Amino acid sequence: MLPLTWRSLVSRAQHVWRRSLQVRTVAITVFFSTIAVTIISGYMSISIATNLYEARKTQAIAEARQATVSTQALFDSSVSSNGTIDVEAVNVTAGTTIRSVASSPGGTQFAILRTPGQSTAVTMTSTSTRGLDTTVITDELRDQVSLDDGQLYTQAVSLRGEAASDPGLVVGSVFEVPTAGQYELYLVYNVRDVQQTLDFVQQTLVIGSLLLVATIGLVTFLVTRLAIEPVRLAADTAEKLADGELDRRIPERGEDVIATLARSFNRMADSLQRQITQLAALSRVQQRFVSDVSHELRTPLTTIRLAGDVLYEQRDQFSPTTARTAELLHAQVGRFESMLGDLLEMSRYDAGAVELDTEPTNLVRLVEESLEAIRPLADEKGSELRLVAPGGYFEADVEARRIRRILQNLLGNALDHGEGRPIVVYVDSDMTAVAIAVRDYGVGMDSAQLERVFDRFWRADPSRQRSTGGTGLGLAIATEDAQLHGGHLDVWSVPGEGTCFRLTLPREHGASVEHSPLELPPVEALEAVLDEPIARDGENSG
Hints:
Helix content is about 55%, strand content about 15%.
């Protein structure tokens, strides 16, 4: 595991990389520029090294050829009239001749070696420059030179220097010594000066490449700063506009494309500010209208309700037609009263005038009470109610009235759309969150319906007969109640397989919910829960 300091540095670098377009642009430009400059510099270094070596090799071959010709001429001219030659004396003279012909800035050494495998009347002693290590002349090179095919052969070697090894070059050729046979002439060149020149060139290329990459990075930084700074200013202004500071604008300077962007952005911001202001004013008028109308309707509705209750209680004294009318009046007045209550509740949410009054609540008991309240209607529908509560941290800081309202709405929807099949309620929790899921096995919903299921005044099937009223505001209010608690309401549904709503709440008021203790839908199969009795009197309540 990396140390904390390194992990923090890596995390900070990743954060800067993700957030800064300028950093990414400069880094990518420098990276690819480094690759390009490295390839070009490498190619130039190899080309220069090859040219320097080939030039020195050509010079060495020319000098070796001249030295071979001069040495051969010296031995040929030293033969006396009687056909004899003082080979040792001529050998000494040959060394002087070779030194005069072959000279190099790095120093030149030579060796005259007898070609092995010869039988002659006279043998000349092999000679070499003092201090020359003849082991640098390899057997492979001697085998090539001894062929005497008229060519000169070269080999790169390493020469021992005072402090370190120096690069060297050996050139070999052959000549004939009268009465003594064939001898091989090797010129050993120290090419340290070539290596020094190459090192200087490579050092210059490296420094120049680094300076070039740094210059490219600096130029890229300056150019991107000029180009990105207006974009960053526009992004900051857009963020402030999104946060509600509608009077923020981008300074307009110049006549270039950035200035055109600033003017266009500012015109857009002006238009948005006007529209948002108009919409806000219209929304306030609408909220005030709904609130006022709802409040104003409560007084006459109360009177109508009292009168309707009187007629409903005396319906047995009326004719069948009048009695049926009294029943319809009583039912619709109740539905109207429920709708007014929902409208008032939504107006409170819109006005931001809703406050929570939380207390520790056992959610299993709360679910049991909601199931018992809806049981008569479930029996009428033929739906069997089941509760699955495996145990856990079921107490949570909630407002029981609002959670009960969410459950009543979810259970009512399950009864209306469950097709008389079982309805299963799951309750589970962990140390930070608690979840309640209501699962039915009815008609279900498709993807288009799921997208609108939490919209106000929307109903999946307006023609379906409902037993629990229904204004189209129930799920919208349930969502607001869940969010007010810091939780959320999710839904899963498949046509023909049913629907599952899951309410997830934090156990402590003010905390946030990062996960849900229940999957959506819960993993328990229908067959596994049909044999489970409903938890009563606090059973499985944790």
